[in-house]
Each structure stands twice: as structure tokens, then as C-alpha cells.
Design brief:
Length: about 850
């Protein structure tokens, strides 16, 4: 088996400062007679045991080896020859590292075997010893020497700085360009190749002063000429100058009178061309060296925008020609493209300058101009106008909203700017609806309440949404309503489905973020019923969009929506889609089940009852999830509460008492109970379970008798009971201190959280009419045990009922199924 610990890749650093892979093999260390010392040997793995030698390197005692990232060893063999071994496993790297450290007498725990002279210190020493860098004379015979000097200076920041100063001070660039022209005339290929390396190196010096010279009108084309002669291309240089002078044409859509502005535009275009097309793609090391070139282009664009923005005559002519009906289509297309590029340049501005830029365009009438352009038939012109509109919406949506609300007071709905946008979205001819997607995003930004302003005098949200739903919503929803007449799909092709999905996405956004506006529209126009027709589409993405729309509505838990859904039986198409999907486990199946599960978990009572009462037979056989059985259980629990409201109110009272912990607190509640009004007694009485069957029978008998009593007499009995208690409390105040005399007590189980009441001894049985019976006015006397409400089927005790505990619900439902009617009132706790 191959020893993977010793498996390595060998890398060497090339002249372009890129690592070249020299092959994969297995490394070993040993004494080499020819090198007279311990050496590292790597043999290619593809050639077996006696494979070719990829590397044979003597471990020099003075060479600095570095271990990096646990699996990499790097060192330099010569001034410009760097090597690296990349190990497959950390163990192999550690093993070879120990051999290297052993030869050099170093501790293997270090990551570098020799102390390197700090570069900044070395450069400082060089700086003191040699104050400047001397360039060779600018002659044809010295170009190779100069190219080597430039290449050797680039790795060191200090030497780069010295080289830049030398080139700048001696006017070296103009001399080099003169040599370039000579080399071209003489067809000196070697000289042209050296000049390519020199000029490329000057770019990497990253110095603005040098760029100012190189990009000047008289020098820039020669600089581009130097960069045409890449040695890699050999005798076939690129023809960049031919493209710039013959193919590329400067279109002046509006005459520019300022010569400085014209020169700046030409320069920026050419420098951008050098960056994008002429210079080779920078390596990782070189990328930061071109930062000044990026900055040069950036500030040029800022300057151009500022100069154009200040030229009022130029902008006035631009918008006048743009909106003039006499302007021919080609000219208008050029004008729109110029304005688009103008807005694209503005993205380089600082926020405050960008705000001033768009304010200037607004004052010049950019929105009315866009409205005119968007109404034209030319697809290319409309596309460019849409891009300009997107810049405006993304930067300042409030400005656009204010404009469309103002124009609505003067124009018809059909020609409003926002309705033009909606129409272009609906009428997009692209099969993939690329333009429609972009326009839908812009509409979404415009109707998003999150970016609407609220001032002291007016609320933009209220005003704009009222405007939108009055003037625009009918146009947005027109394709949806037109395609779902008679509760069936008129067209179900892919492009129509994509468009309807986009409209539904926007309507779903409105449901989430708008309140009564979208609610009124959906209910008045019966939009949800039309949307659910789309669940029958052959395109799953459209059916899912329809389900998502309904799910968002249900998620609001708004009873207006719920009543609308129930009244129109809008779960029917959902159930049909679920059944038509069959047993397939797909997104449609999951989305529908999740919708029903949400209704169950959130206990939306009206929808639960509607679903079970109307669709249970269709759904009862679905057993692979418990959602529908859970809905049925919820429904039965609701019915049980409705049939036995006193039991439900008693349960809620008992839940309120579940955390009683001391007798004193309970006694306070008793006092509050006795002071309560008649209405509160009806629903707020606690219950104590009896201790034996005799008590149960006695209580039940007493309850039946009490059902026959007149309500006025019961009230009088309670008054007597209260009076007798007050007298007893005054007469026996000494017995109240410990509260030990009542015959019941609270007990808590260590294993459960439920609270129970212990019963008195069996000997203290009750009889009708006794002081402890419900019919006796003296039921609150000391020593008399309490009674409990019972039914024939079982007891209801003072226990902890969870809110939605299914087991307790089933127990209670089991009791309620007994034929014994519930008692008309509950027994009172004795004091």
C-alpha cells in the first residue's frame, strides 16, 4: 500500500509570481554524495519505485525553511527560485520538518528555521546607503536591463517608490514612448517585448502622477501600442489602436461646447478600455497594485457628471429633444441611452451629491419625459427608459410616488406613469418575462409601506395606497380576473402562467403589508375565489402561488377574511386540488397539509368548524398525517364546550387556581367569593370532590332538589349563609389564627403538578338538609365537609386542566356522553 504520509505536490514560483504545479510524488530524505549533504528527494508517483526525480534539493544549513498551515513547507533555492512541498497528510509534513530542523540544529516546534532580516529594516538600511535609484540611459540597447530593473523592484514597496520617483523626475515615460515608435519603425520585436514588460511594470507602480502623463492626449495611444506587444502572443500583436481609432465612434447626441468636458469623456473611455481589455487580468499579488487606476476612472466619472449637471443648456436641450414628437427614433434611442449612461455614472457619487443629481434631473422634468418615452412602441427605447426609471425608484421612491399622485388629478388612468409600467409588465413579449420581473420589482418598491414617509401634515402611506387601489389595482389584476372567468382557466400556457405568478406574488406582498385596502379589494372583487381557480393549472409553480396567496390570508387570522372564506366555500378548490394530487408526496401535498395544520395548531375555530362540517368525509381517510384527525378532535372539543358551557367555564376557573400553594391565599379567595354578586356566582364557583360514594349520592340528590328551587329563594339562602359566616367569624376569632378547623385541606403530589383536595373521614357522611348539604343555609359552619358537583358517570374535581390537553378533553367528553343532565349550579366552598 502506498504511504500517503509522504505523498506531496511540488510547486515552483514562476516569473509572474504564480505557483506552477511540477507534479505529484513521494518525498524522502537522505545523504546524496553528489551534493555532499542531506537532501530532500521527490520521485514521481506515476513511475513506480524507480520513478523520475521531481526534486533533489540539498538541505542547506543557512536556508530559511518555513512550515505553513501544517501541510506546507516553503523555501528559496536562489534569488528568484522559490519551492514548496504540499503534503497530503500533516504527519508526513511533520516528519520531513524534523529532518530539516535536525540538519540545521533547530527545534522542530518552530515554524521558520532561520531568522529573516525584517524587510522594513533592510529597506531602511538600503535607504540610508542609497538615497535614490539610478535608471540606465533610455536607449534601445539598455531596454533589457531596464526591464529587469523594473521587475526586480516590484516586490519591494520601498524600491517601487524609488523607481516611481526616478521615472517621474527624469521624464522617462516620454523617452520610452519615443523608443517605442523607433522599435515599431524598425520592427524590433525584442525591443517591443521589453517595452511591454516595462510599461506593464509602470502600471503596477500604482502612482497617479505617472498615470496623468501616460493618459494624456499625446501619450495614451502610444501607451496602448506598447501593451499590444505581449511576448506571449509572439508575432501576432493585438490591434487595440485600430479599434479605438476606426471602430469605436464618439456619438455626440447633444453638442458639447466645453472642450475640457469632451477631452475628459475621451480620456475616461480609453482608460476604461485599457483596464477592461488591454491589461492582462491581474494576479492575486497584482490586484491591489491597480487600485489607483480604479480611482482614476472613478474620479473622472464624478467630474464628468458634475460638469454635465452644471451645464443647464445641455440638460434643457436633452429633455426637449427627448420629448419632442419630431425627434426621429434613432435619435431618441441615442438620447435615452445617453441619459441611461449618465444615471449609471451617478452611482459613483457620494450620497449628498447623488441626491443633488437626481433633484436636478427632477427639476428638468425627467419623469414626464420618461412617461412620454415609455408610451412609445420601440422596445429598445422602452427598455433603456425602464433602466432609468429603476435608478429613480431605487434612490428616491417618494419622488416618483409624489409625481404620479399629482398627475392623477389631470390625466386619465390609462396614461398614468405607474399604469404604463403595469401595462409593460403585462405585455412583455420576452418568453422568460425578464422585463416583467424587473418592473414587478419596481412596483413592489413603490407600494412598500416600509419606505413611505409620515409627516405632521400628511401620511404618504395612506394617500398613495388610496390612490393605488383606486386608479391602478384594477389594471394590475385584469389578467388574473380575465383568465379565471366562469371558475375555469381560459389560458394555461407557460408565458401566461408566469405572468399570473408575478401578479400573484405582488398581491401576496400587498396582503402581508397593506391592511384594509387590500382586504376591501379582495372581498369586494371576490379575488380569492378567482385566485383559487389557478390551483387547477397544469403548472405546479402557479398552483403553489395560489395556495401561498390563500395561506397568507389565513395567516392573518382576520375574521373578516375567515367569514368571506366560509361564506363562499373557498376551501373546496383546495380540497379538490389535494384529492387530485393523490398520494404523491410533493410540494403541492405539503403546502396544502401545512395550511390545514396551521388552522389546527392556531385553533382558528370558525375555519375548523367549516372544514370538518363540509369536507370531513373527503378527508377522513387521510391517515399518513394526523392533521385532519386533529381538526376533527378540535371540532368535537368546540362542540362539547358549546353543549356544556358551565363545564367549560368551570374548567377555566380551575385553571386560574392551579398554582394555589397556601391555605391563607385560598381563604382570601373564599372571602372574595362570599362577597361576590349573584351574576359572578353563576359562573365563578369552585368545586371540591367528595370523599366517598355516600357523599356523591348526597350531593347529586341535593343538586337535583336545588334545580327545583326558586332563584329568589337561592339568593336569600346565600345572604343568610353570608350573615351566619360573619357572626361565626366574630364569635370564634381565636380559631381563625391557624385555619385548622375546616375539614378539607390542600395537598400536593410530589410527582405531579395537579392540586387535589383531601376529603374528611368517611364517618362524617352527609345527609340532605344537614349543615354541609347544598340546601342548608348553614353549610359554611365549622367542621362541616364541603360537597361537590357530580354526574352519574363520574366526578369533577378541583384539578389542573391544561388549556388544550387532549387526554383531559377526552375524559370530559366521555363524562358528558352520560345521559344524566348537568346540575344547574355548583356547590360552594365552606369557609
Amino acid at each position: 500500500m502506498t504511504d500517503t504520509r509522504r505523498r506531496v505536490k511540488v510547486y515552483t514560483l514562476n516569473e509572474d509570481r504564480q505557483w506552477d504545479d511540477r507534479g505529484t510524488g513521494h518525498v524522502s530524505s537522505g545523504y546524496v554524495e553528489r551534493l555532499k549533504g542531506m537532501s530532500l528527494l521527490v520521485r514521481a508517483e506515476s513511475d513506480g519505485e524507480s520513478g523520475s526525480l521531481l526534486l533533489e534539493s540539498k538541505i542547506n544549513p543557512n536556508t530559511a525553511y518555513q512550515k505553513q498551515q501544517d501541510t506546507l513547507i516553503v523555501w528559496s533555492e536562489a534569488e528568484n527560485y522559490d519551492l514548496a512541498l504540499s503534503f497530503q497528510e500533516k504527519a508526513g509534513c511533520d516528519e520531513i520538518w524534523e529532518k530539516i530542523c535536525q540538519v540545521q540544529g533547530k527545534d522542530p516546534s518552530v515554524d521558520i528555521t532561520q531568522e529573516l532580516v525584517d524587510e522594513s529594516e533592510e529597506e531602511r538600511f538600503d535607504d540610508m546607503s542609497s538615497p535614490g535609484l539610478e535608471l540606465p540611459p533610455c536607449e534601445l540597447g539598455r531596454l533589457e536591463e531596464l526591464a529587469e530593473l523594473v521587475a526586480s523592484s516590484l516586490p519591494s514597496p520601498l524600491r517601487r517608490e524609488k523607481l516611481a520617483l526616478a521615472v517621474e523626475n527624469e521624464g522617462y515615460i516620454r523617452k520610452l514612448l519615443e523608443l517605442f515608435r523607433q522599435c515599431e519603425d524598425l520592427e524590433n520585436a525584442d525591443g517591443l517585448h521589453h517595452l511591454y514588460e516595462i510599461v506593464k511594470g509602470i502600471f503596477l507602480l500604482n502612482r497617479t502622477a505617472l498615470f496623468e502623463v501616460m493618459f494624456s492626449e499625446e501619450c495614451i495611444m502610444d501607451v496602448i501600442g506598447c501593451l499590444e506587444h505581449d511576448p506571449v502572443l509572439g508575432a501576432a500583436p493585438r490591434r487595440h489602436r485600430d479599434f479605438l481609432t476606426k471602430t469605436a465612434r464618439f456619438k455626440e447626441v447633444i453638442p458639447i461646447g466645453d472642450p475640457e468636458l469632451r477631452a475628459k469623456i475621451h480620456q475616461t473611455y480609453r482608460v476604461q478600455y485599457i483596464q477592461d481589455m488591454v491589461l492582462p487580468t491581474p494576479s492575486v499579488f497584482e490586484e491591489n497594485m491597480l487600485s489607483t487606476l480604479h480611482s482614476f476612472i472613478f474620479f473622472n466619472k464624478v467630474e464628468i457628471v458634475g460638469m454635465l449637471q452644471d451645464d443647464e443648456k445641455f440638460l434643457t436641450d436633452l429633455f426637449a429633444q427627448l420629448t419632442d414628437e419630431a425627434t426621429d427614433d434613432d435619435k431618441r434611442y441615442e438620447l435615452v441611452n445617453f441619459l441611461k449612461e449618465f444615471c449609471a455614472f451617478s452611482q459613483t457619487l457620494q450620497p449628498q451629491n447623488r441626491e443633488a443629481f437626481f433633484k436636478t434631473l427632477s427639476n428638468m422634468g425627467i419623469l414626464p419625459a420618461l412617461e412620454v418615452v415609455l408610451g412609445m412602441d420601440d422596445v429598445q427605447v422602452r427598455g433603456a427608459a425602464t433602466d432609468i426609471f429603476s435608478y429613480l425608484v431605487e434612490y428616491n421612491p417618494s419622488m416618483v410616488r409624489e409625481f404620479v399622485m399629482q398627475e392623477s388629478q389631470q390625466n386619465d388612468d390609462d396614461i398614468l406613469l405607474i399604469n404604463l409600467i403595469i401595462e409593460h409588465m403585462i405585455c412583455d413579449t420576452d418568453p422568460e418575462l425578464g422585463g416583467a420581473v424587473q418592473l414587478m420589482g419596481l412596483l413592489r418598491t413603490l407600494v412598500d409601506p416600509e419606505n413611505m414617509l409620515a409627516t405632521a401634515n400628511k401620511t404618504e402611506k395612506t394617500e398613495f395606497l388610496s390612490f393605488f387601489y383606486k386608479h391602478c389595482m384594477h389594471i394590475l389584476s385584469a389578467p388574473l380576473l380575465a383568465n379565471t372567468t366562469d371558475d375555469k382557466l381560459s389560458k394555461d400556457d407557460f408565458q401566461t402562467s408566469q405572468l399570473l405568478a408575478l401578479i400573484l406574488e405582488l398581491l401576496t406582498f400587498c396582503v402581508e403589508h397593506h391592511t384594509y385596502h387590500i382586504k376591501n379589494y379582495i372581498i369586494n372583487k371576490d379575488v380569492l375565489r378567482r385566485v383559487l381557480v389557478l390551483t387547477a393549472s397544469q403548472h405546479a409553480f402557479l398552483a403553489l402561488c395560489a395556495l401561498r396567496f390563500m395561506r397568507r390570508i389565513i395567516g392573518l387570522k382576520d375574521e373578516f377574511y375567515n367569514r368571506y372564506i366560509i361564506r363562499n366555500f373557498l376551501f373546496e378548490p383546495v380540497v379538490k386540488a389535494f384529492l387530485n394530487n393523490g398520494a404523491r408526496y410533493n410540494l403541492m401535498n405539503s403546502a396544502i397539509i401545512e395550511m390545514f395544520e396551521y388552522v389546527r395548531v392556531e385553533d382558528v375555530k370558525s375555519l375548523t368548524a367549516h372544514i370538518v362540517e363540509n369536507y370531513w368525509k373527503a378527508l377522513e381517510d387521510v391517515n399518513y398525517v394526523q392533521t385532519f384527525k386533529g381538526l376533527k378532535l378540535r371540532y368535537e372539543q368546540q362542540r362539547e364546550r358549546q353543549d356544556n358551557p358551565k363545564l367549560d367555564s368551570m374548567r377555566s376557573i380551575l385553571r386560574n387556581h392551579r398554582f394555589r400553594r397556601d391555605a391563607r391565599t385560598l381563604d382570601d379567595d373564599e372571602e372574595m367569593w362570599f362577597n361576590a354578586d349573584e351574576d359572578e356566582l353563576e359562573d365563578g364557583e369552585a368545586v371540591v370532590p367528595p370523599s366517598d360514594n355516600k357523599t356523591t349520592k348526597s350531593s347529586a340528590g341535593a343538586g337535583e332538589n336545588e334545580d327545583l328551587m326558586d332563584p329568589i329563594s337561592k339568593f336569600m339562602e346565600r345572604k343568610k349563609l353570608k350573615d351566619s359566616d360573619e357572626k361565626e367569624v366574630l364569635g370564634k376569632s381565636s380559631s381563625l389564627s391557624g385555619r385548622q378547623s375546616p375539614s378539607f385541606k390542600l395537598s400536593f403530589s410530589g410527582s405531579t403538578t395537579k392540586t387535589s383536595l383531601s376529603s374528611p373521614p368517611p364517618s362524617a357522611s352527609l345527609h340532605p338538609g344537614s349543615p354541609g348539604s347544598p340546601g342548608s343555609p348553614g353549610s359554611g359552619a365549622k367542621g362541616s365537609p364541603p360537597t361537590a358537583v357530580t354526574t352519574k358517570g363520574g366526578l369533577v374535581g378541583l384539578v389542573d386542566y391544561p388549556d388544550d390537553d387532549e387526554e383531559d378533553e377526552e375524559d370530559v367528553s366521555g363524562e358528558s356522553k352520560e345521559e344524566t343532565p348537568p346540575l344547574s349550579k355548583k356547590s360552594k366552598l365552606s369557609s
